[in-house]
Amino acid sequence: MDNEKRIRTIMKLKDVKVDVLVIGGGITGSGIALDAQVRGLSTGLIEMQDFAAGTSSRSTKLIHGGLRYLKQLEFKLVSEVGKERAIVYENAPHVTTPIWMMLPIYKGGTFGKWSTSLGLSLYDILAKVKKTERRIMLSPTQAKSKEPLLKTKGLKGAGNYVEYRTDDARLTIEIIKTAVDKGALAVNYVKANTLLYEQGKVSGVEAVDGLTGDTFHIKAKKVVNATGPWVDFIREKDQSKEGKHLFLTKGVHIVFDKSKFPLQQAVYFDTPFKDGRMIFAIPRGDKTYVGTTDTVFHEDPVHPQMTEEDLTYLLEATNAMFPSLTLKAEDIESSWSGLRPLIHEEGKKPSDISRKDELFLSHSGLITIAGGKLTGYRKMAEKVVDVIVKQLKKETGVTYPPCSTAKVTLSGGEVGGTAQFPAFIEKQIDIGIKIGLSATVARNLVDCYGSNISYIYDNIIHKKELNRQSKLPLHLFGSLLYGLEHEMVITPSDFFIRRTGALYFKPEFVWKWKERVLQFITEYLQLSEEKRISFSKQIETELYDSIKPIKDVNK
Fold this sequence. Notes:
The protein has 555 residues and is an alpha+beta fold. It folds into 3 domains: 3-55 and 169-243 and 356-407, FAD/NAD(P)-binding domain, CATH 3.50.50.60; 99-164 and 246-352, D-Amino Acid Oxidase, subunit A, domain 2 (D-Amino Acid Oxidase, Chain A, domain 2, 2-Layer Sandwich); 417-553, Helicase, Ruva Protein, domain 3, CATH 1.10.8.870. It is built from 18 helices and 18 strands.
């Protein structure tokens, strides 16, 4: 979405009264916008930062069935999100990848051999796991063979089961793009300043454009508060924050190069601290990332940061499970921190609070959705839109169809389904090589953009003069231009964090190209010098925050 398209979208939001206005452009708000638009409701969505800039780009990046929730006897939750994995995978195979996850069993650990076998079998049944992905129990020798880095002492075996790795931010972006393709009006960097009311009922918002400072009204029949860590701020504006409230916890992840942490397969393991926590170590390309922590958070939700305590906790836990590595702070390349907006439960530790979502309906008509998990975004959206269509039928007599997003292929997912995706990748790699890309670069692009790779290739083939002027590598030029034209990129941080994940998994690449990327964005969007300076400081801050605690530890 270039500047002209953005302006047109805002003009439409000013001029029309939408059926549904969603505040919040994370995975939950995006899912609601898609569901509502697919059912025939005119839908608007505004996000005060970039899409997915909050929790939805800072998770463990797993579409998983919530094995840990079996311990909390959350059988329905496990069943629901387990089935949702398969739906997300089929609708967006380019951003969802099945990976084998090992659950090592140690003497005195959380899981015993019998309970692990039973738990994983129950997991397979509840989540309706396909036969080829059902759990396999491993002997100590087999476990060490699959992952030689595992601690040997006390190892009694392991359970091996399938989880689904994803790119959380890209999944969110693909959902928004799909909603927009179907007619939704979505825009980032627009904040809901205040709520508007007519006869005591919420009727829209006064919004402010973060790029221009312009203030305008958006009118809506129904307003949904899907702002994640900020839902209570909106409820306070509505004077409806009563009863249950949010409880924010922070999760931190650290990233290593494969040369420092050559993990062969994903591992889900106990911490040595006897605190009931478990941690993931997950290979991704030529990196390995580890997380997550779970600590109470009371600071600014916009900038959760890793502390020295977080770093030390993860390093000690990782070295305890993989003792041959002796990882140090200087081995960490980057980090990210995110918030979980949980529903407060008196007397429970952060890791014990349920991840179930909850719906709040205020006297003004404001609909708030809070809690929940990345994996369950589609069911959360269905729950919200079901309430909306029920209300509208009562108020207007108009009937809307039930949820059908389980069958909606997401943007980039037109690859012939999961069965045909490997062949699609190979074909696109061949095309990429012919236009001057390496096989590795072409594969990474297809994995990222799926069927939308054709737009990147078209940029490379047909816009050579613009590429020459940009002085950017072919693949960077092609994907950046696509981001500007089709993915609502406004800042280098949007591109390097939410559209590509490069800041976390290729920080050295970001350092090298950030200024040229900023220059290209500035010229393409015709931004002011003031905005250029602001965006330059933003990406510098993002990079610094990603590595600052590592530097602090090594002082």
